[in-house]
Design a protein that fits this description.
Length: 400
């Protein structure tokens, strides 16, 4: 526990240099490679469930983790205490070479299993969209982790590409190396040697975080030497803070501001964390329109749209399909778990992923100040600075 965290610290910095937990690696430093992946667990009071999400520690502000539990690769197992089944299987399936990316793959798989103990192969592959490996070619990693998937009988068999006996398949048991034939092992590993995965044996969410109902609702202020971190508890409080600090920056997933601070040496003296304000985290269907709060994460929007598409008796047409298609290719799972829809819009980037879909669907941006304002998205794209008025912020989006 850090009583007065520095608002400029990232979670990765705190883990490695303050707690000396060096299993979590730093590689790209901008949330693109997944080497720094950890699990963030939060208690959702609205559903009464624990929300487990893989996140990039390199761009996660330490202050944003208040009230949540963070689990690193050291926390799930070690050689001394005993390996977790995820760690064991990536090792025994030869899924690691230099090992720098391994903790990230381990934690992405662990996060997936915490949410779904028997994932499909497609769900497993989607979970690794934000993890990169330059050594293995991914096959051995995938083969080892496929043993967790419900529809896969673990074959663990590779293929030589036609270099087997008499130019045939390596499944014949030989490889043709020109002058001699060498007998091959027919498997990469023996799945029967793996520990059985038991979800009940995983780390329990801390009861003190679950029982303390004030953690999410309380307002917070963390003061550093150059930066002040503010966490309002309501939209009204947020608007008042914006009026008092017109040049302050709102922070959600920190996927954009974090890059500006780290690589462009930008300094923002006042940061306002908005991802736990109830009014900004709601998704609703109103009069055949989808109303999306500005602090809704992309992964939550993706799940909501999938459920809406599969459970609703009425068709919402191509807009929903286009939105789901774009979200599938939007960054990696770790980024989608924290990035917000407002963050993607407010940057006014000409290469924004979602804005073309939202524009085509006739989306409307509702800007909130102490007076309020509504803006059509097509006009915002022509004059993006309209969204940067003092005292105003994106409150929600209405998708027709």
């Amino acid at each position: 526990m850090q009583k007065n965290p520095n608002p400029e610290w990232t979670l990765l910095y705190f883990l490695r240099f303050k707690l000396r937990l060096c299993g979590t690696k730093e590689a790209c430093g901008e949330g693109g490679c997944g080497a720094c992946t950890v699990l963030q667990a939060k208690f959702d009071e609205s559903t009464g469930k624990i929300v487990n999400a893989a996140i990039n520690a390199c761009i996660t502000p330490l202050c944003s983790t208040h009230g949540s539990a963070i689990i690193t690769t050291e926390g799930i197992g070690s050689v001394k205490a005993g390996l977790h089944p995820v760690q064991e299987r990536i090792a025994k399936s030869h899924g690691t070479q230099c090992g720098f990316c391994t903790p990230g793959f381990v934690m992405s798989m662990y996060a997936l299993l915490r949410n779904n103990p028997e994932p499909t192969e497609q769900e497993m592959e989607d979970a690794f969209q934000g993890n990169l490996c330059r050594c293995t070619g991914y096959r051995t990693i995938m083969e080892g982790f496929k043993t967790f998937c419900k529809e896969t009988a673990p074959s663990a068999n590779g293929c030589c590409g036609g270099k087997g006996k008499n130019g045939g398949c390596c499944m014949d048991g030989f490889i043709n190396d020109g002058e001699s034939r060498t007998e091959l092992a027919d498997t990469l590993f023996d799945p029967s040697e793996f520990k059985k995965y038991d979800p009940k044996a995983d780390i329990i969410f801390p009861s003190e975080l679950q029982l303390n109902k004030n953690l999410r609702k309380q307002s917070l202020k963390f003061q550093g030497s150059d930066v002040t971190w503010l966490k309002p508890s309501s939209l009204e409080e947020l608007l008042k803070i914006k009026q008092q600090h017109p040049n302050s920056k709102c922070v959600g997933g920190n996927t954009e501001l974090g890059i500006e601070v780290k690589f462009k040496q930008q300094l923002y003296p006042v940061l306002i964390y908005i991802s736990e304000i109830d009014e900004l985290t709601q998704i609703q269907v109103c009069d055949n329109r989808l109303k999306i709060g500005s602090a809704v994460t992309l992964s939550r929007l993706q799940t909501f749209c999938k459920d809406l598409s599969s459970n609703s008796k009425r068709s919402y047409g191509t807009v929903l399909e286009a939105l789901l298609e774009m979200l599938h290719w939007f960054a990696g799972q770790q980024i989608r778990n924290v990035a917000t829809i407002a963050g993607n819009i407010i940057t006014a980037s000409p290469i924004s992923d979602l804005i073309p879909v939202l524009m085509a669907s006739g989306a409307v941006v509702n800007l909130r100040s102490l007076k309020g304002q509504t803006l059509y998205l097509y006009k915002y794209r022509i004059e993006p600075k309209l969204a940067l008025y003092k005292f105003r912020l994106v409150a929600s989006h209405t998708n027709t």
